[in-house]
Automatic annotation (TrEMBL):
It is a single-pass membrane protein. The lineage of its organism: Bacteria, Pseudomonadati, Pseudomonadota, Betaproteobacteria, Burkholderiales. InterPro entries: N_methyl_site, Pilin-like, T2SS_protein_J. Keywords: Cell inner membrane, Cell membrane, Membrane, Methylation, Transmembrane, Transmembrane helix. PANTHER family: TYPE II SECRETION SYSTEM PROTEIN J (PTHR39583:SF2), TYPE II SECRETION SYSTEM PROTEIN J-RELATED (PTHR39583). It is found in: Cell inner membrane. It comes from Undibacterium squillarum. This is General secretion pathway protein GspJ. NCBIfam families: IV_pilin_GFxxxE (TIGR02532). It comes from the Bacteria.
Amino acid sequence: MRSEYRLRRSSSGFTLIELLIAISILAMIAVLGWRGLDGIIRSRQALNQEMEQSRGIQLAFAQIENDCAHLMDASLLPGQSVLSAGGNKLMLIRAVSDDAQPTRYQVVVYSVVDAQLSRRELPLTRELRRLRADWELAMSDGDGTTPIVLQKDVQSIQMRTWKTGETGWRSGGDDIQNPSQVLTNPAFPAITGPKSAKLAGLELTLQLISRPAPMVKVFLLGAA
């Protein structure tokens, strides 16, 4: 009788309580697995976004470096600035030498507007009068050229310049001599006496919204 009872009980399947326990365990495993998968996906998305931002900054810095390396010789344009850094805008005149073509020049503008770092370039020209007119138009943002966005989510941009013959960075600046301008770095005293009007270096600091630390890059101006 006992063996027959045991046989009937074993062939009757799981009880309701056993099924509920099994379902609860499977549900807990599913929730834990989903949380782990969701964490992996979020981490991957954040990593991809950071890599995309880093790539965008590197490309932007590479473009600025190339433009600065081909900065127009200021002696070719007397009384006219060939680089101006201030506020949210960097303007410069670069030389372009193509194969079988005479050297031409164009005004290039980098600016931060609506949290976007963009670059725009005006048409190439060999006429100094046209170049001066393009500079004035770009200064007032009246050139009408279409900007190309290089980096988004830009919180701020800061620029400093280095002039030959001096001992510190200036906040912003251009290549026109300004005797009243003094160093903003408290580690150096104010400059007195004659100063060179030739710019030798540009320091650019880019702060992104999603990054705690800014990106800083120093560029040499003109051909080495």
